[in-house]
Structure formats: structure tokens, C-alpha cells
Amino acid sequence: MWIFSVQRRCFHCSLSVTKKLKGKTATEQRWVLRQLKDPYVKASHAQNFRCRSAFKLLEIDDKFRLLQPGYSVVDCGAAPGAWSQVAVQRINSAGTDQGSPRGTVIGIDLLNIPPLDGAHFLSNHDVTDPATHGKLQELLPRGRAHVILSDMAPNASGFRDMDQEKLITMCLSLIDLAEKILLPGGSLLCKYWDGVLSHHLQEKLSSVFSSVRTIKPDASRKDSAERYFLARMYRKPVK
Ligand SMILES: C[S@@+](CC[C@H](N)C(=O)[O-])C[C@H]1O[C@@H](n2cnc3c(N)ncnc32)[C@H](O)[C@@H]1O
């Protein structure tokens, strides 16, 4: 009986996998199979996160305690919104915990970001555009943030060096953003793809933050060049 029910479950399972693979190219099929096997994808469905990347931020925040109740947080490259979901929980911006101060989460993306209780989204906005910086200053309490998060990534062209350089340029623009909105002592967490220019970004960050470390969370796929710089204790540059 037990064997029969397992066989039946497997039969249904393989039927739905076959359905998911139907009409897809070989590359798309590989992607679907990898998603189906990924424990973080399964956990994100179970815990209602919008995507698996939530677990990277949860892991980093569990270790480094970046996000505190009452903080103001800017989430760059926020779509579909999983990091913002984590930030809303951790800084209490939906006011769920009445005994703790209520924070602010502002998410920005070139794409549309579906609404989320406790977050204010600037969809169809470019993080590197000074006009977006102006809007952020208006929206943030006293125009300042405690933390800037960036999981931004450009559309991959397939040319590794070119994509890496693009992402580094986007990360460098976050240093300009920090100068406008980040509180002294604040933190910046940004994703980059490891390569020849990573060191340049690290040096630039080190010139305005007292501590800069590299992080590769367990939830980040092992075969990916993805890394994060966690820069802490912001010092506004003297001009
Ligand atoms: C890996 S996804 C972010 C996932 C997100 N952290 C989450 O947990 O849901 C990267 C995002 O960066 C966005 N992006 C890329 N360049 C951008 C830019 N210049 N300004 C704003 N968003 C950008 C992309 O549109 C994409 O949605």
C-alpha cells in the first residue's frame, strides 16, 4: 500500500515536471530542474518569500545584525521584493511589533515591484539617476538612511568581464548615493561579481567606511561569482 502511494506520488510528480519542461529550450529545462531541486527555492515558497534571495539577507543579517527596529533602509534593485520583505520584518516598518520602534523601507527598481505592507516602492526608477536620489531624500525621515542594501544586477550579456564591470560601476554609484543619504556610522551591503575590478571597488569603499568585508552567503550558489561587500561605519568624505 505504502509503495503504491509513493509510486503514485512519484508518477504525479514526474508528470508535473514533464509539464513544466514542455516546450522549453535545453537551457531553460536545466534552469527549471535546478529550481525544482533547490532547497532555498522550496523554503522561499514555504515561508512566502518572493524569491530565494531572501535567505542571503537573512543569513547576513543573522550574523552581522545590520537591520535594527526603527532603522531607515534603502533597498536598491528591490524587485520582486524578497529583501524588502526581510527588511520590513527586521526593522518593524509594518509596525507588527508594537513594543519596538517603527522603521522605514524604501525599495527602488527599474522594474515594477508589487506592493508590500511596510515598504514604499519607487518602481521604474534608476538607482544611478540623481533624480532618484532627490526623491529618496524627500521620502526618508530627515532625508537620511541607516542602511543601504543593494542586490542590483544588470541584465547579463553573457560577456563576463563586461557584466562584471557594469555591476562594479553600479556599485560605485552607491558611494555617491551614500554621500547624500547615509547617516555617519551607517552601513552599505552591495552585491558584486568577483573579478579584476573587485579590488578597485573595495578600495573606494574603504576610503569612506571604517570596515569592509567580503561575504559569500551559503544561500549564494557555489558556482556563481556573486559576492557581497559589507561596508560599515560610514565616514562622510571631507571636501
Ligand atoms: C537579483 S534582482 C534583486 C532581487 C531582490 N533583492 C529581491 O530579493 O527580490 C536584481 C534587480 O536589480 C534591478 N536593477 C538593475 N539595475 C538597476 C538600476 N540601475 N536601478 C534600479 N534597479 C536596477 C533589476 O531590475 C533587478 O530587478
TrEMBL record:
The keyword Mitochondrion applies. GO terms for biological process: mitochondrial large ribosomal subunit assembly. GO terms for cellular component: mitochondrial matrix. Residues 49-232 form the Ribosomal RNA methyltransferase FtsJ domain. Keywords: Methyltransferase, Mitochondrion, rRNA processing, S-adenosyl-L-methionine, Transferase, Transit peptide. The active site is at K191. It catalyses: uridine(1369) in 16S rRNA + S-adenosyl-L-methionine = 2'-O-methyluridine(1369) in 16S rRNA + S-adenosyl-L-homocysteine + H(+). It is found in: Mitochondrion. One of its GO terms (molecular function) is rRNA (uridine-2'-O-)-methyltransferase activity. S-adenosyl-L-methionine-dependent 2'-O-ribose methyltransferase that catalyzes the formation of 2'-O-methyluridine at position 1369 (Um1369) in the 16S mitochondrial large subunit ribosomal RNA (mtLSU rRNA), a universally conserved modification in the peptidyl transferase domain of the mtLSU rRNA. This activity may require prior 2'-O-methylguanosine modification at position 1370 (Gm1370) by MRM3. Essential for late-stage assembly of mtLSU required for efficient translation of mitochondrial DNA encoded proteins; methyltransferase activity is not required for this function. HAMAP family: RNA_methyltr_E. Belongs to the class I-like SAM-binding methyltransferase superfamily. RNA methyltransferase RlmE family. This is rRNA methyltransferase 2, mitochondrial.
